[in-house]
Design goal:
There is one protein chain. The chain folds into two domains: 3-240, Aspartate Aminotransferase, domain 2; 246-374, Alpha-Beta Complex (Aspartate Aminotransferase, domain 1), CATH 3.90.1150.10. The chain has helices at 3-9, 50-63, 74-82, 99-109, 122-128, 151-161, 173-176, 211-224, 230-240, 243-262, 281-287, 302-311, 341-346, 363-374; strands spanning 67-71, 90-94, 115-119, 133-139, 164-168, 186-190, 204-208, 267-271, 294-299, 316-317, 327-329, 353-357. A seven-stranded mixed beta sheet has the order 1-7-6-5-4-2-3, with helices on both faces. A five-stranded mixed beta sheet has the order 8-9-12-11-10, covered by helices on one side. It contains 14 helices and twelve strands. It is globular, with a radius of gyration of 21 Å.
């Protein structure tokens, strides 16, 4: 079945007898038992709920995995993954990461005894693996510098060492990239972003290729209580119905907008993986079928960056990404504000860097808005 059809119809399991086209919201915290020692398959919504299960089955089908567990946010999903490890365990991670992920690793996970090393390329990641390494965690493309990691190349190293490969697939979604097919063990999504797609709810998902690993993560989710609610599950299901068509539109508009940005005098560098001069363009073409809707760019001066943020009208100056509305973000003060200054600057995150999530508005309107804001 084509992936766009899976987006529309989700999983095949039916939960009621009314013929409802949309999966119902099962707003029940608990479920009655048919008899002693018997269950309908649902006992308590912290463990599982029919609406949440429908979402999980849908994402599993999209990513080509064994099971999916849905969480209350992307960070809740990442936190659950970290509970797979014990004090003293070592994890190699992408050098360029979403600020919230770096904050989790540096402020929470390290406090709990985990150790981290950071690397950029597959070869550099391999060089950082030690006998204590239990996992590799990568974003690709990375946030916000749009570096691309060769998933298959990293997977060859992790499989040889029998360690987990965890891939954050938020930016490209299974419409454009399926990390499990390239050798990953766990795929992470901030469902808040493209899966939901409407800037109206928070969610996170973990899709795994091994049911045994899923059992461990379900136990963690049940015990720590980070599961997604029925109402939010419904919103993500609704968002996924249009995921394929939205991603195609985001991709088409972002590529055109990125090319336009490269021609502007005040724009000094454009980071978009669909531009042929991007250093990782060939890797992108090899492991993904599209380039997505995320662009970062550096301007000539900090004042230019602030002027753009204060003067955009159609585009909204706001955190987050992946929704119908175009959003522009200042990583220095928003997504990566908690990184130490030297860490930010080493990654190229400074007062001149902006990140643009291209929405579903007409290309001409996005470009006109950027043009008047750049001045």
């Amino acid at each position: 079945m084509d992936i766009s059809t899976i987006c529309v119809h989700g999983c095949d399991k039916k939960y009621d007898t009314t013929g409802a086209v949309s999966v119902p919201i099962f707003a029940s915290s608990t479920f009655a038992h048919p008899g002693v020692g018997q269950s309908t398959g649902f006992d308590y919504s912290r463990t599982q709920n029919p609406t949440k299960e429908h979402l999980e089955h849908t994402v599993t089908a999209l990513e080509g995995g064994a099971e999916t567990i849905a969480f209350s946010s992307g960070m809740a999903a990442e936190t659950a993954v970290m509970e797979l490890f014990s004090p003293g365990d070592h994890i190699v991670a992408s050098y360029d990461l979403y600020g919230g992920t770096f904050r989790l690793f540096s402020r929470i996970s390290e406090k709990n005894g985990l150790k981290f090393s950071y690397a950029v390329t597959a070869d550099e990641i391999a060089a950082k693996i030690t006998p204590a390494t239990k996992a590799v965690f990568i974003e690709t493309p990375t946030n916000p510098m749009m570096n691309v990691v060769d998933i298959a190349a990293v997977a060859r190293h992790t499989q040889k060492k029998n360690i987990l490969l965890i891939v954050d697939n938020t930016f490209l979604t299974p419409i454009f990239q399926r990390p499990l097919s390239l050798g990953a063990d766990i795929v992470l999504h901030s469902g808040t972003k493209y899966l939901g797609g409407h800037n109206d709810t928070l969610a996170g998902t973990l899709t795994v290729k091994d049911s045994g690993l899923a059992d461990k993560l379900r136990f963690i989710a049940k015990t720590t209580g980070g599961g997604l609610s029925p109402f939010d599950s419904f919103l993500i299901i609704r968002g996924i119905k249009t995921l394929a068509v939205r991603m195609e539109r985001h991709n088409k508009t972002a590529l055109a907008a990125a090319k336009w940005l490269t021609e502007q005098k005040k724009i000094k560098k454009v980071f978009y993986i669909g531009l042929k001069d991007h250093p990782d363009y060939e890797i992108s073409c090899r492991q993904a079928t599209g380039f997505g809707g995320m662009i970062s760019f550096s301007v000539d001066a900090e004042q230019t960056a602030k002027s753009i943020l204060e003067n955009v009208k159609v585009i909204k100056y706001a955190e987050s990404l992946g929704g119908t509305e175009s959003l522009i973000t200042y990583p220095l003060l928003q997504t990566h504000a908690d990184l130490p200054q030297d860490e930010r600057e080493a990654r190229g995150i400074n007062g001149c860097l902006l990140r643009l999530s291209v929405g579903l508005e007409a290309l001409d309107d996005i470009i006109a808005d950027l043009k008047q804001a750049i001045g």
